[in-house]
Amino acid sequence: MKRTEAVSPLSPADRGTGRSADPGAPAIALRDATLAFGDRVLWRGLHLDVRPGEFLAVLGPNGSGKTSLLRVLLGQQQLTGGSLTVLGRPSRSGSRHVGYVPQQTFQPTHTLLRARDLVRLGLDGHRWGPPRARRAIRCRVDDLLESVGATPYADVPIGRLSGGEQQRVRMAQALATDPRILLCDEPLLSLDLQHQRTITGLVEERRLAAGTAVVFVTHEINPVLGLVDRVLYLARGRHRVGPPDEVMTSSALTELYGTQVDVLRVRGRVVVVGAPDGGTGHTHDDAAEEGEGQ
Ligand SMILES: Nc1ncnc2c1ncn2[C@@H]1O[C@H](COP(=O)(O)OP(=O)(O)OP(=O)(O)O)[C@@H](O)[C@H]1O
């Protein structure tokens, strides 16, 4: 299990409420941020504030630097240039105020760790001092598992679960500490429509109830189109940020890719045609799938 992805000890400075010193401060602030590996620039000059309660979708072709951006926000990867603050402070790894749903990695089938153990690690893996009362922890774990529809397999070793089932458990783990920022790396991968809705519903609930800022990496914007405040689109070392109606347009993506790209709206869905990487999955037509299932 990649325990460090979601759980690690708190630094002493991080034991507070997670609120910024300045309540009006953005949850995340990137200034002139650049990330490069050797000569390869993933993105440069990124200037971005993510407000509390905002839903930012991060799109872009394979290798454009979406996961790397999350690693930067998690404090696991240093910027090459520019600066970053998270909840008003320099980012650091292991903050309980930042929930993380990592990109899907399949667990070995022989692992003994059960779904409920993984969620529990998300709950008390950050804590110093005596463990919380067992019953309270068990109830909270049960509630979290229930919220993602994972109760039926709470006691099944995680390696025996399907990709979609594992994904739902990871979401429960990420929400365990009531994070003020939620970073999701393709959390809808492997999920059928019903469970996509369960997951997006949970994220939305959390965002509205607690003002959690959401950074949501996805290859498929349509399942979250109604929730997204802004899109950050990364491609060819460049980026574009703005509301979906401004970014998901033929002119914006043509400029970003440097070649003709057409963005169509079909029954309220976004369809991208002609992106050199074959598109980033926006052409997937959920509406058709939904109709078929009824
Ligand atoms: N530590 C590292 N050192 C060198 N190169 C790296 C490192 N981390 C990532 N890369 C490279 O940076 C590029 C971007 O990787 P990243 O995982 O951020 O892409 P992505 O947009 O999330 O892709 P995908 O859609 O396939 O998940 C890749 O080519 C990757 O190999």
List unreliable stretches of 5+ residues.
1-18, 283-294
Strand content: 15-25%
Rg over CA atoms, rounded to whole Å, is: 19 Å
Helix fraction, binned, reads 25-40%
**Structural classification:** alpha/beta
Assign an overall shape: globular
Q: Ends: how far apart?
A: 38 Å
Order of helices and strands: EEEHEEEHHHEHEEEHHEEH
GO molecular function, one term: ATP binding
InterPro entries: AAA+_ATPase (IPR003593), ABC_transporter-like_ATP-bd (IPR003439), ABC_transporter-like_CS (IPR017871), Metal_Ion_Import_ABC (IPR050153), P-loop_NTPase (IPR027417)
Family: Belongs to the ABC transporter superfamily.
Protein name: ATP-binding cassette domain-containing protein
Describe this structure in words.
By secondary structure, the chain is of the alpha/beta class. The chain has helices at residues 66-73, 115-124, 134-147, 163-175, 193-210, 244-247, 250-257, 286-293, and strands at residues 28-37, 40-50, 55-59, 81-86, 89-90, 98-101, 181-185, 213-217, 230-235, 238-242, 262-266, 269-273. The strands form 3 sheets. The protein has a 6-stranded mixed beta sheet with strand order 6-7-8-3-9-10, with helices on both faces. The model is unreliable at 1-18 and 283-294 (pLDDT under 50). Adenosine-5'-triphosphate (ATP) is lined by residues 37, 42, 60, 62-68. This is ATP-binding cassette domain-containing protein. Belongs to the ABC transporter superfamily.
